[in-house]
Write a structure and sequence with these properties.
Number of domains: 1
Strand content: under 5%
Radius of gyration: 17 Å
Low-confidence stretches: none
Number of strands: 0
Largest sheet: none
Structural class: mainly alpha
Helix content: over 70%
Distance between the termini: 30 Å
Mean pLDDT: 95
């Protein structure tokens, strides 16, 4: 169980780093705006106050260190997704990781953003209130695909580092 937990944590961290590198590439190559983790941090800090859904998070009361809180939350969610997937996939998958399960799982994780985070930020269900919702949805699906790639790649790296032989 400890191996599955540790593997899940490392997969989640690695996949989240990869998704952030992807966001930087999109920003530099296609002028796609980077995620605003400050607004996510603000949303997180309003949760204990009983406020899950905002009409517009930007007009909600700012909180100290909201950007840092948003970043921590982003990585926390990535780790939770990684751990959940590791337990779901099980030791057989961890011993011999394949891409399709990680990809399908990662695509399913977009539901958390579309049906909780985005409405919570005031962006509507599945970002329906943004200017170009289909473009934003497609970018989200691409990012979550990169997350799935990261889960699989980091599982492979962990498997290779744990084995006694190096594949040729």
């Amino acid at each position: 169980m400890q191996t599955i937990l540790c593997t899940g944590i490392l997969m989640g961290l690695g996949a989240t780093v990869l998704i952030d590198i992807w966001a930087l590439l999109l920003q530099r190559m296609a002028q796609v705006a980077l995620p605003n983790w400050g607004m996510v941090g603000r949303w997180v800090m309003h949760l204990p106050r009983g406020k899950l859904f905002h009409k517009e998070i930007a007009v909600a009361l700012p909180v100290p260190r909201e950007r840092q809180i948003g970043w921590v939350f982003h990585y926390f969610v990535g780790v939770v997704y990684g751990v959940f997937f590791a337990f779901l996939a099980g030791p057989d998958w961890i011993a011999a990781p394949t891409f399709p399960p990680a990809f399908i799982y990662a695509l399913a994780t977009i539901a958390g953003g579309w049906f909780l985070l985005h409405p919570g930020l005031g962006l509507g269900w599945a970002v329906s209130k943004v200017e170009h919702p289909n473009r934003v949805r497609m970018l989200g699906l691409l990012s979550h695909s990169v997350f799935g790639l990261g889960l699989w790649l980091f599982a492979l790296l962990l498997t290779l580092s744990a084995s006694d032989t190096v594949p040729v």
